[in-house]
Write a structure and sequence with these properties.
Largest sheet: 5 strands, mixed
Shape: elongated
Strand order of the largest sheet: 2-1-5-3-4
Domain 4Fe-4S ferredoxin-type: 160-190
Protein name: Succinate dehydrogenase / fumarate reductase iron-sulfur subunit
CATH topology of the largest domain: Fumarate Reductase Iron-sulfur Protein, Chain B, domain 2
Structural class: alpha+beta
GO molecular function, one term: 2 iron, 2 sulfur cluster binding
Family: Belongs to the succinate dehydrogenase/fumarate reductase iron-sulfur protein family.
CATH architecture of the largest domain: Orthogonal Bundle
Number of strands: 7
CATH class of the largest domain: Mainly Alpha
Organism: Hymenobacter gelipurpurascens
Length: 261
């Protein structure tokens, strides 16, 4: 393994893994033992080792979501020892290394727990509710054609930086999993703020926030009570300030809206 520490001592671990055949069946915690786990492995590589062992034994492997394994796509959503993405702040599950654990540890691994994120199988959950929220308003109207000059619309650096920080949201759902109400406010606020801050997003500014909030409520996400656990567990550090921006955008849109629902 590239960059591995040859002096690192392998670990033996007990895994308590949530197993569930489908969203229509009951699930349960199943205990597994994994041996000779390198501290330089990522958490997902450790799960790969577990699945290889299960396949050799003729058992069904554990289903879990993953793709880029670089902390970009947001699909590696796991609840590890009661924390979204595990014990290290600012880290996705795929970036979490086994050196954060010790030989002999017991690790409990569960899927996101939210009514709006039903379990597909085992540790894999359906996060398509986020996609439908984006489809409701997370876009801008632009004319297609030749590529515009990068400096055609001057944007102050402070605004550009704030929009970029909001745009770093990877849509993993850790904010929902960490919230006691399973609220999606941090996710929605990041998407609304990103576009509301930029001039390109002003065309749909009012309808965007109305439609996205309405879709968020329709999906069954809970209300925000400003506890802050969402921002604390966000792997890319999305700020709670975005929720304030969302609330301001929503109130402003409602003040001029014909939609009084």
């Amino acid at each position: 393994m590239a960059g591995s520490n040859p002096n690192a001592k392998p670990m033996n671990l007990t895994l308590k893994v949530w197993r569930q055949k489908s969203r229509n069946t009951e699930g349960r915690i199943v205990d597994y033992q994994v041996k000779d786990i390198s501290p330089d492995m990522s958490f997902l590589e450790m799960l790969d080792v577990l699945n290889e062992d299960l396949l050799r034994q003729g058992d069904e492997p554990v289903a879990f979501d993953h793709d880029c394994r670089e902390g970009i796509c947001g699909s590696c959503n796991l609840f590890i020892n009661g924390r979204a993405h595990g014990p290290e702040a600012g880290t996705t599950t795929c970036q979490l290394h086994m050196r954060k654990f010790s030989d002999g540890d017991t690790i409990t691994i569960e899927p996101w727990r939210a009514a709006a994120f039903p379990v597909n199988k085992d540790l894999s959950v359906d996060r398509s509710a986020f996609d439908r929220i984006i489809q409701a308003g997370g876009y801008v109207s632009v004319n297609t054609g030749g590529s515009p000059d990068a400096n055609e619309i001057p944007i102050p650096k402070e605004i550009a930086d704030r929009a970029f920080e909001a745009a770093t949201c990877i849509g993993c759902g850790a904010c929902v999993a960490a919230c006691k109400n399973a609220s999606a406010m941090l996710f929605v606020s990041a998407k609304v703020s990103q576009l509301a801050l930029l001039p390109q997003g002003h065309v749909e500014r009012n309808t965007r926030v109305e439609n996205m909030v309405a879709q968020m409520d329709k999906e069954g996400f809970g209300a925000c009570t400003n506890i802050g656990s969402c921002a604390a567990e966000c792997p890319v550090g999305i700020s709670l300030e975005n929720i304030a921006i969302l609330n301001r955008e929503f109130l402003s849109a409602k003040a001029t809206s014909n939609n009084l629902a």
